[in-house]
Write a structure and sequence with these properties.
globular; single chain; five-stranded antiparallel beta sheet; 91 residues; alpha+beta
């Protein structure tokens, strides 16, 4: 995703066929696994549901796909690393 021209967006479809537009924030690697962080494109910062979406990047049949992170401990660890990276610039 190219950061040279502003924000990048993707469209994903969940298991129920619902389509969502997400704004790409960053990608990290943790213990050999890549994760991407996104914001819902249609939410305002003051929305009570405002929060990042973390998806695992997996290779399936030679193509990269996004997967949900279902393990709470894994999700918390990845979330904390993203928060450290995303807010590091503000310090």
């Amino acid at each position: 995703m190219d950061e040279d021209f502003g924000a990048s967006y993707i469209n994903i479809v969940d298991d129920e066929g619902n389509e969502f537009e997400l704004e790409y924030l960053d990608t990290i690697e943790l213990r050999g696994v890549e994760y991407a962080a996104f914001l819902p494109a249609d939410l305002a910062e003051d929305d009570p549901d405002y929060g990042i979406i973390i998806l695992r990047i997996a290779e399936v049949d030679g193509e990269e796909q996004f997967e949900s992170v279902d393990d709470d401990d894994e999700l918390q660890e990845v979330y904390e690393k993203f928060m450290k990276i995303l807010f590091e610039d503000e310090e």
